[in-house]
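Reviewers of the previous submission asked for a worked example of the structure-prediction workflow described in the proposal, so we include one complete record here. The input consisted solely of the amino acid sequence. No template or homolog information was supplied to the procedure at any stage.
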Amino acid sequence: MATEAPAPLSSFVSRSSDLEHLLTTCAGSSVCAQGAFVARYYPSNADNPWRIGPLSEWSEIYGSDKAEDGGIAMLGFVDPSSHSTRPGWPLRNMLTWLRHCHPEATNVNILCFRDTALLAGGAVDGATLVQQCESIVLRVNVTSVASLTSECQVSGWERNEKQKLVPRIVNLSSTMDPVRLAESALDLNLQLMRWRLAPSIDLAKIAGTRALLVGAGTLGAYTARVLLAWGMRKITFVDNGRVSFSNPARQPLYDFEDSLDGGKPKAEAAASSMRKIFPNVDSQGIQMTIPMPGHSISASEMDSTRATVARLDELVASHDVIFLLTDSRESRWLPTLLGTLHRKIVICVALGFDSYVAMRHGVYAHDDDFEPMAAPKAADSNEAVRLGCYFCNDVVAPTDSLSDRTLDQQCTVTRPGLAPIASGTAVELLTTILQHPQGGHAPPAVPGANDSAGEFGDPEHQIRGYLIGFRQHAIVGQASSLCTACSPSVINAYRQHGFDFLLRAFNNTLVSEDAPHCAAGDSADVPADYSYLETLTGLAALHRQTDTMLETIEWSESDDDFEAI
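From that input alone, the workflow returned the following structure tokens.
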């Protein structure tokens, strides 16, 4: 038992320089690394006040206290405790060893050595040594024990393969790695969701999903952050822009430094920012200008455009979900076509001033399903209906919407809080799809139905939200046989003719009766204001039929006729 209150080592030594000498001696010796040692302090020797040795030198250093040499003997150990008056748990082992190996020792000075001392500002008796966790000295009276077996149990020691009692060493370096700690903390937050609220959720499926974000602007930045919060580890950005001074305030993956010197490439800066937020994320930035319908390709750009299309096709094929997050309609056309061809989950998000749409594209069930579609199925049909894509409701083909617009017209002007709402909705739509047993083929939610097979219910087809009145609507629309992006006629034309088909769409080549790839039945008198895609899909024929019907209608401007109606 302790006979005196623990005292700080600074009050025990004669000179503050003796503290520094002890630290230097221990740092230059391998003895302290063993965890325990024998020490003798000589107050009268200013040049060499400390002698340190292993426990095997007990007799030489400690002896019978050797008071005649003027030194003070101590039994020391490396103390992990940071408490000012309480030693750490290794003291129990030290006292047991002392009682077992040297029963003759009674009153013993115990040095609880804390090696976290630092040289810093501040004076201690004129010196500049300050210890964060100062070592302490105990005076202990080791009482005799009536019976002490040789097989005493010692905490922290176990027998090794040679049946020797040795300290048990555990390598905790991996648990102290900040990167691993961050990954563990992220996973724990998601696991709590599963443990407490959603026991059937498949977190591994979400984490293993590879996401391709076409567009690294406001929508892309917010979408990436929510994907990361869900634990996704593979996120790739595609964008052709650079970070401007207006971006950091609205787009959470960029800061002011990214906008200097003309701005960093957005895709690369976004990927770098993701790795800073979470080092274990596999994030890549691809600087790419996506070819678009109505944006002509010159002869000098032919090779680079062909390479771009091949690269984009490769990216779509190697990812599981494609997010369409660009500013213009035509920039979403090629990713929509490729996503349909490779039967990927495609999530499209678009913003208005105070409204948004987040929707999923329909997925073909099989590769051989790219056949000309029959008449639309009845609403009450039990047969599965493929859902429409972003372009299925359009009656005109996408074309150049940027060249004739002023700079302010080219910018998407929205209320600042809209983008995070739309992005979060899109990611939650994706997780609902991933947790459904039918995945991308899951049917849309049925109002009032409670028999969904998915962990989060059935995924909606389209979610349209409005900040005015804070309203939200779920809409379902089936795929159009005349769609310029996902219809079988478009997919089959691309599969058959490849880049040549795309080139006609990019250059908005006008067609005539003998133009290749035209839909059957097109007449020779195709008006010049119809594009290639409109003629290919049958939209041009639909327009002509509509014009013909309108010509047969007799309009009356008489007030009497209007009132009668």
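The longest strand covers residues 117-124. We consider this example representative of the routine output the project will generate in years two and three.
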